[in-house]
């Protein structure tokens, strides 16, 4: 299990005439994601999703609050290196080594985790089968399509068999075939008892696959629950309409042109 306990991140920005002001990118957010669950984090551009996920992934220190991660037996994990070993994190702008083949990249990361040669070969083959990568596993990364690169990024995240996946916009800009491969992977990992935290703009996709959803806007949680609970609470028939009911606005209120995706 992974939980956010009053997680807060405060930054300083420059406003008119060089004046500085503090603001909350994430404002005292609390929730938990259980074993064997896909939890969707939904919100428009600028809502604080990426900052929240970076804190949950132990990549960014919080201003206040804490991240709680427990083992299968409920034991709290406090050592930072152990925490990172429990997490597979995929950022929106993950960079890969273009001149490596996919197999070479995965071998490198597996070696960093201390696996033996035989273990590495078995892991790479298993991942290749899981993400349907056979046709490009030995191709150089710089030659891959966008969808193939994204599957390679996910493969890198699961080489150490983490208990928790944190994915920031994993299907953004992908074709339908690549999106399906990634969605199928997340559902398979849920069936294996893994926890998946998954940020997206795509409401229909989240409605289809998430067990529960946390909606955030301007750094704060505005709603949480199952897709059915959110629809019933707002008297709507889909998550898109439920979201706008919660923020009491229209698509024109959403920043950054996100209305095309919400």
Structure commentary:
It contains nine helices and nine strands. It has 262 residues and is an alpha/beta fold. The relative contact order is 0.17. The strands form two sheets. Strands 5-6-7-3-8-9 form a six-stranded mixed β-sheet, with helices on both faces. The protein has a three-stranded antiparallel β-sheet with strand order 2-1-4.
Keywords:
262 residues; three-stranded antiparallel β-sheet; disordered C terminus
Q: Number of DSSP strands?
A: 9
Total of helices: 9
Would you tell me the overall average pLDDT? 88
End-to-end distance = 28 Å
In summary, what is this structure?
This protein has 262 residues and is α/β, with parallel strands linked by helices. The chain has helices at residues 49-56, 80-85, 102-112, 117-130, 146-158, 176-191, 203-209, 227-234, 239-247, and strands at residues 2-14, 20-33, 37-42, 64-69, 87-90, 164-168, 195-200, 212-217, 220-225.
């Amino acid at each position: 299990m992974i939980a956010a306990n009053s997680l807060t991140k405060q930054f300083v920005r420059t406003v008119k005439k060089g004046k500085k002001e503090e603001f909350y990118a994430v404002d005292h957010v609390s929730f938990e994601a259980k074993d064997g669950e896909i939890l969707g984090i939904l919100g428009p551009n600028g809502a604080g999703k990426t900052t929240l996920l970076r804190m949950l992934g132990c990549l960014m220190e919080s201003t206040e609050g804490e991240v709680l991660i427990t083992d299968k037996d409920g034991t709290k994990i406090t050592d930072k290196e152990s925490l990172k070993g429990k997490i597979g994190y995929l950022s929106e702008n993950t960079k890969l080594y273009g001149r490596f083949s996919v197999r070479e990249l995965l071998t490198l990361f597996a070696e960093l985790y201390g696996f033996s040669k035989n273990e590495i070969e078995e892991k790479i083959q298993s991942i290749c089968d899981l993400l349907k990568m056979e046709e490009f596993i030995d191709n150089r990364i710089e030659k891959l399509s966008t969808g193939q690169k994204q599957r390679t990024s996910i493969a890198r995240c699961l080489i150490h068999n983490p208990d928790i996946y944190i994915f920031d916009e994993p299907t953004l800009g992908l074709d339908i075939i690549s999106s399906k491969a990634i969605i199928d992977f997340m559902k398979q990992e849920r069936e294996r008892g893994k926890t998946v935290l998954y940020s997206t703009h795509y409401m229909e996709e989240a409605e289809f696959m998430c067990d529960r959803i946390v909606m955030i806007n301007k750094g704060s949680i505005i709603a949480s629950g199952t897709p059915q609970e959110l629809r019933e609470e707002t008297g709507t028939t889909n998550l898109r309409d439920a979201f706008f009911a919660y923020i009491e606005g229209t698509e024109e209120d959403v920043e950054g042109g996100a209305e095309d995706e919400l």
